[in-house]
Predict the 3D structure of the following.
Amino acid sequence: MATRVDEEYDYLFKVVLIGDSGVGKSNLLSRFTRNEFNLESKSTIGVEFATKSIQAEGKTIKAQIWDTAGQERYRAITSAYYRGAVGALLVYDISKHGTFDNVERWLKELRDHAEANIVVMLVGNKSDLKQFKAVETDEAMGFAEQHNLAFIETSALDSTGVDTAFQRILTEIYRLMSRRNLAADEAQAGGIKAGTTIDLNKGTGEKKGGCC
Amino acid sequence: MSGLQGFLGKLSDPSSNSDSTNSAAPGRSAAHNVGIKKKPIKGWDDDDDDDDDGLRGERITQTATTTTTTTATTSRPPPSSSSPQPSSVPSFPPAPTSQTPPSPPPRGPLSPLEAKFSKILDEPNVNLESLKAAAWCGCPESDRGEVWRLLLGYSPTNRGRRETVLERKRGEYWKAIEGCGLGSGGDEHDHPGITKTEQVLLRQILVDLPRTAPSIPLFHHPSIQLLLKRVLYLWSIRNPACSYVQGLNDLCCPFVWSFLSEHTLSAQSKPITKGIDVTKEIPTTTLQHIESDTYWCLTGLLNSIQDHYTPNQPGLQKQVYTLSKIVERTDANLSQHLTSHGVEFIQFAFKWCNCLLVREFDVSVICRLWDTHISEGSEGFSVFHVYTCAALLGKFSEEVQGIHDFGDLFQFLQGGMKEKTEAWGEEEVAVLCSQAFVLKSLFQNSQAHLT
């Protein structure tokens, strides 16, 4: 493989994909980064990784996405990848209620291992399986509101919502980061806005232009 | 380390062993040509008079053991390959080595390699050391199943006892399956006899089954899916310290492949195909044998690497660490290249050690690679494997060093390897194993160099 010159980007955001095994994390990633879907892809062992750049509010954002294994046994390995992540897509399968029941446990995982202010989006995947829907949209939406999470339903199979999900979380991260910078400025001037709840850690969004 | 690299380079020269591994005599790969002898592995060989069949750590059902003991003095049942019936567990008396064993089945014209194996396998008592030495360089497909059963301590070395013991073990398997509450039903809720924990376990297995070797239709045949489900479930409930770990499904594939291949070659004189219609071409009895053999051989393999799969996977983490140290010593440039680009060994080698390289090679190639691993005895997967990984990485060192983007590097190490090894044959595997052997010879007894 030839050396590839890094494409230009303004921000680099690390995002993790988490959730029970078999909910479609790897396919969400492959649909988003390569527009590919594989009905019977292999299970993820440890972690996998892919990147994609998007445009948000005139900026080029490069998403570095870590896809983690869903099985409990791998938690010790996968939780190490939460470090430095500014976003998490917490995925469940809309046709398997058990995977939604476990969302709370995954949130705890994030609380224990991720940065405090990580942006979390709840993703109900496999929305194409309408006839097998086991988790109602309202139920998931209510849960998301209660826990202050963004929410979307997607189908990696027919692409519904996939780009939107990534676009939304990355834009949200970018906005919060800009707001943080603003808040920092205001703090210096003596006042912090009460509504600023998410404070992304320094160094997570690295401004970079041109090749290395 | 330039001397070592020069040496490895020499070994990788195909002309140095181009036709050695496939021929019957001397049938030695480069490692043997350099005159390094392998030590016999202690504590792994099947003791011929040992009723335990060498499958240590496996719990044998009380009923089966009792049946064996009480009927042990009755006359020897004729060797039979009929369907194992859980209700009639066969038994055997100790076999005197002087007895005349049943004649081996007639074989067609043999290749030199097959002739060599035939000679070893047809002995009344198989000499495991000779078998290991021969299998280290690769087994003929027709004999692989039998060789693996012998080397993994499942099949006894005494030919007179072999059928009887296998029949007993196969019976034990089916009895255990009957007792574990697993039917042939659909999802985890279709098995009312199992506990909540077992339901969670079964769910995980069911999620992974359709994702086993997706590119090979044979593994998606309903009979094979059911086979895998039962094997994995039984192994998991009998080994609760590990239980099922994703990737164990991959480890079943080489066994199923080899045993099926053994059947198609002997019964139909044709090699196995990836799209074989199992229902049409494989008799039910044979499939039952393949299932129980897969279970026992998987058990034999996993007994040596249990700590790969216990919580936090300490054995696996240690192996990955050792790999990074070996590469640091043998290929400092590569090691530095990975480090400077932020690539950690755990990120890609975790899978190599968890799935024992099954995902990095085509199934036929992995079977050949496992011939060597299994011939290394109980250290094949716990020790030799890490040197194989180091040799594999070394093989692609230049290519890896030519990649300068973290994402591309990661992509290559994680999935790109399979594409690269697609065209591999006997020769490439032989070179890889030889290099692994050299690395092991250099470092295994000098652990201080790897800390």
